[in-house]
Amino acid sequence: MSYGISAALQEAVYARLLGSAQLTEIVGSAVYDELPPGPMPSLYVALGPEKVRDASDVATAAARHDFTVSVVTESAGFQTAKAAAGAVSDALNGAAMTLGRGHLVGLWFRQARATRESGGLRRIDMTFRAHVEDD
């Protein structure tokens, strides 16, 4: 197994989300790999935690990355957050992306959880699974 592909995968996912016209229409440029200092926009998307497991066999170094993409909003309901989450899912599920290291075998939506947080925030955490192989 190699964790070396992790940065390349994150970079490709971030670029894919920034390049999604559907998502940009909803959240503008408020897609973050790292949350900026200061006040946050009322609706944004953030890359989150990741869990990686070995998926190698005797011939190939591979890993399975389960990573979270979150949609957070101050809106009273979930409608806007769900529209943004749908755009994230459309951009990533089954996407073919070129990585700076290794290659992406597949990328799939796994699950989502919508919650109300303190301060009136609404949050949708979506988990995606990427299977990558190191060249």
Q: How does this model look, in words?
A:
The protein has helices at residues 6-18, 21-27, 79-92; strands spanning 31-32, 43-54, 62-73, 103-116, 122-133. With 135 residues, it is α+β, with helices and mostly antiparallel strands. The chain has a single domain, classed as 2-Layer Sandwich (STM4215-like), CATH 3.30.2000.30. It has a five-stranded mixed beta sheet with strand order 1-2-3-5-4. Strand 4 (103-116) and strand 5 (122-133) form a beta hairpin. Helix 2 runs antiparallel to helix 3 (79-92). InterPro entries: Gp17-like, Viral_Tail_Comp_sf.
Task: Summarize this structure briefly.
With 135 residues, the protein is of the alpha+beta class. It is built from three helices and five strands; from the N terminus they run ααβββαββ.
List keywords for this structure.
135 residues; alpha+beta; STM4215-like; five-stranded mixed sheet; elongated; Viral_Tail_Comp_sf; Gp17-like
Structural Rg: 15 Å
Task: Figure out the total of helices.
Answer: 3
Number of strands: 5
Q: Which structural class should the secondary elements be placed in?
A: alpha+beta
Distance between the termini: 12 Å
Shape descriptor reads elongated
How many domains? The number is 1
| Uncertain ranges | none
Instruction: Report the β-strand fraction as a percent range.
Output: 35-45%
Strand order of the largest sheet: 1-2-3-5-4
Please outline the major beta sheet: 5 strands, mixed
Gross CATH architecture: 2-Layer Sandwich
Quick check: average pLDDT?
95
How are helices and strands ordered from N to C? HHEEEHEE
User: What name does the CATH topology carry?
Assistant: STM4215-like
Q: Share of helix among residues?
A: 25-40%
InterPro entries: Gp17-like, Viral_Tail_Comp_sf
Pfam family, one: Tail_completion_gp17
